[in-house]
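tool=predict chain=A
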Amino acid sequence: MSSDASGVRSMRDWLDSYSQDHQHPTNRLLHWICVPLIAWSVIALLWTIPVPEAFLHPGAWAVFAIVLAFTWYWKHSHRLGAALLIALAAFALLSYFAFQQLGASEMRWLAFGIFVVAWIGQFIGHMLEGRRPSFFTDLAYLLIGPAWLMDKLLHRMGFKETT
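tool=predict ok
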């Protein structure tokens, strides 16, 4: 594992480490399905947290979390940070429209249900893999899952990593 002089791990270190815990083809497939669902459901759940309407609009907590996540991604990789910002913004738009159609209570139940089912899928994948989920060793891996998928997607689309 490499790191810079301050001891900060590179994004490539994070992704390579995450890949080692995700070798089984079914586990990988389940991650392609479940990680985006979990990411959306977290944004949707945050969207439903009430805010003072005099100052903020519904979704403010979700936007705040997206900004924090983007900042972390951007610090580690501009390429992945930019791509993930687009994906997270799309999830935020989906949440906005779902909130408009369903209201807070119904969207909260939908997002919670998806969150639970997707996590069950993740744990089934790791049972097949025979390895514990990476986040058991470091909670930062909760941010690496989406980055790992985005890195693979960008690679498939021909957007190569620059060093």
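The radius of gyration is 17 Å. DSSP finds five helices and no strands in the chain.
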